[in-house]
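#struct-help
A.M.: can someone run this one for me? Single chain, 233 residues.
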Amino acid sequence: MEKLVHLLWRSSDHDEAAHRAHLVDGLAPALLASPAGVVALEVLTGDTSEEVPRPPLLIGRGPELASVVIAWVHCLDDRAPFIATLGEVTGTTGQVDQYLVTESVPQRRARQNADGTVTPGITHFSWFPQPDRLTDAEFFHGWHDVHTPKTPELHPLRVEYVRDTVARVLSPASPPVRALVAERFPTVADYADPARLYGSDAAMEDSVVDLPLYADFETLSCRPLRQTIVSST
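D.P.: on it. Structure tokens below:
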């Protein structure tokens, strides 16, 4: 199977609730029935403004992101109808940035809810390119070997960490993203309150020092999202 990650962008008339309803409640059956052979479908939506009016981490293109649609498929060659359906989602620009990724899960969360229901808490979603100055070996050493082992101290209340590496950018006009990360926190307060979101001062200082080993701050993007696992394997 192959994992595809799709980024959808807010239009000028974006309505968070209407967007989520159209995507999750309205179009999910059509996405699952795609000829691409969707085995599992997950949607992350940006309808968090009421619960998290002042996100502690909202940078780069984060304010522009409407949702993220994640699909496990039998073959990416058959994805065209899937992409066409996503391009018609209410409240988006119609641009769908498509990425083929390899997934690793350094920290896994036990499922707490049934398919089709919103996962409790908040998902902090980040994405960034690989800096030109770094070789692949340097990039993965900095991201995987140096940064990742320190993140439990940086975010001690985090309950899941999904780390995707982009193998191919599938849409020609899309930016060259290399990393997509989903970090899940069990309650809104665990994310929205900086005192709960972050751990020790030393861990925060380390994260700043280590950042150039795998990313540049000016190319980082992130925002809070809500997870709905529409259909699991």
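A.M.: thanks! The chain has a mean pLDDT of 95.
D.P.: also worth noting: The longest strand covers residues 92-107.
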